[in-house]
Amino acid sequence: MIGAKKIVVVLPAYNAALTLEKTFKEIPFDIVDEVVLVDDCSKDNTVEVAKKIGINHVISHEKNKGYGGNQKTCYTKALELKADIVIMLHPDYQYTPKLIQSMCYLIANDLYPAVFGSRILGKGALKGGMPVYKYIFNRMLTLTQNILIGQKLSEYHTGFRAFNKDILETINYNANSDDFVFDNQMISQIFYAGFEIAEITCPTKYFPEASSINFQRSAKYGMGVLGTSIIHFFNRLGLLKSSIYITKK
Q1: Which pLDDT does position 134 carry in this prediction?
Q2: How far is CA 169 from CA 71, 156, 173, 239, in A?
Q3: CATH code for position 59
Q4: How far is it, in rounded angstroms, from Cα 141 to Cα 93?
């Protein structure tokens, strides 16, 4: 705990058996109280590895629900565990869990309600092996999103995020897509509800065992991201009233 805040790390997993233990061992358990792994019907032995290394809360989807569907289960379980701060971390070891302390400190001390680990701040992305086409794609999308949403994030596509419970108890994340665009819909909801997001420089690693989507899926994701930003823009102007922006409280 930091400042009597209960901290829960959630790991949305799919075929993460080769990288899960490395990720888990770097989690700072001097402050982290619970770890939740949700396995989205993996084809490898992710669940067995999770139980072997001592993760107490392992949830297995009987059918693949998608990346967004996985996160929905993660956040619901974290709230059931009475988390004050929830860290969403990909278990593919692209992001270092060593930043969890810094991210949680900003939230526990009421500086920001959400903190993202950014691969783009500094030179971590290309240095860590991000493919050039993905880097360019990331920068173009982020510029467009900042204009449409009216914010100044360095990137909208990181898989390392920390939230206080107020965000998860306010936005209706269950109304979002079960696919990869879930992440961007959630950011849109957070900003639309009036919350701020801080960013911290995060080194990243690209290697064969790390998860990655192909060019075709990336293109589909990009179109979904643009669609989300456009919808946010028109809702901000009062020209639309989309259901995903209806808060839970």
Answers
A1: 79
A2: 14, 21, 9, 26
A3: 3.90.550.10
A4: 24
Query: Token pair of 49, please?
Result: 């590895």
Report the candidate in 185, 179, 181, 178 with the shortest Cα–Cα distance to residue 245.
185
Domain range spanning residue 43?
7-245
Reported as half-sphere exposure (CB side, CA atoms, 13 A), residue 21 has a value of 8
Separation of CA 162 from chain center = 8
**Total domain count, the chain:** 1
What is the distance between the alpha carbons of residues 161 and 179, in angstroms, rounded to a whole number?
Answer: 17
pLDDT, position 131? 77
* Mean per-residue pLDDT pooled into runs of 10, the chain (249 residues): 92 96 97 98 97 98 97 98 98 94 96 95 74 84 96 94 98 96 97 97 73 70 94 96 92
Count other C-beta atoms under 10 Å from residue 191's C-beta.
18
Nearest to 78 by CA among 114, 123, 128, 35: 35
The tokens of 94 are what?
């692209």
Question: Is 173 part of a structural domain of the chain?
Answer: yes
What span, in angstroms and rounded, lies between the C-alpha atoms of 132 and 135? Answer: 5
Q: Would you say residue 26 lies in a domain?
A: yes
Residue 1 forms part of a structural domain: no
- Letter for the amino acid at 70? N
* Domain annotation covers residue 2: no
Residues 151/229, Cβ–Cβ less than 8 Å:
no
Q: CB of 203 within 8 A of CB of 128?
A: yes
Q: Are 189 and 173 in contact (CB under 8 A)?
A: yes
